[in-house]
Prior knowledge:
The chain has seven helices and twelve strands. The chain is of the alpha+beta class. It folds into three domains: 44 residues, no CATH class; 112 residues, Nuclear Transport Factor 2, Chain: A, CATH 3.10.450; 86 residues, SH3 type barrels. A hairpin with a 2-residue loop joins β11 and β12.
Amino acid sequence: MRRFFTGTALTVATLTSVAIAPDLAMAQALPEPPIGLQPMPPPPPPPIKPYAPVPITLPPVLNDPSFIAFRKSLGDIAQQKDRAALAKLIVAKGFFWLQDKDLADPTKSGIDNLAKAIDLDSKTGNGWETIAEAAAEPTAAEAPQNKGLFCAPAPPGLDPQAFGKLLQATETESDITQWGFPSENGLEVRAAAKPTAPVIDKMGLYLVRVLPDSAPPDTPGAPSFLHVALPNGKAGYVLAVSIAPLATDQVCYVKDASGWMITGYIGGAQP
């Protein structure tokens, strides 16, 4: 909605140009603007249109005890930022890094390819946060065309045709990042981005549209909320941690005689 500020900015700029015109007498004749003059607020957003709900089933949790133990080890490594230990949990050969094509360098080790994919060696530590998040992710799904390959986080179950029709109806085909799904049934939707705001609806297990004006909390340490549009046309706020995105990076694993190993990454940094 920033485009609405353009008109206001243009108006202010026009008034300013008149005030500083070379004709000093004319400038002096102009009335002084009120102290504390503020730009006009932007107009309200257009009404939310209802859309057909697309039901989902929650992603499957991989309850293999060996995978749970592997994730625990991965979490410990992430906490210590131990690159050498992480390298031992990555396949030595055959690591893939997929975006629109396989970006992995076959002449480099798995750890070097993963490090580039997630910016592991950055001083910001974002790459290690990615590893920590992977360790904390309990869901994983086997790739339909590649038996034995599991990628996490797992996507929800849904009807692809119904999802395609939803994208067309809402004109969001070019940006599926606007869509997410709840982590549980009956998620409370509030009237404002505050934990104490009135509950105006409860969300079922279906896809939900995340609106672009979602913003971080004003108070440090306060919970973050997302502004969402429900299928019934209502708009409200839900806890950000309760909505998972459809479009997300994935870490992929295989299990061999020695145990679980990281074998690939889908998404990642721009090469």
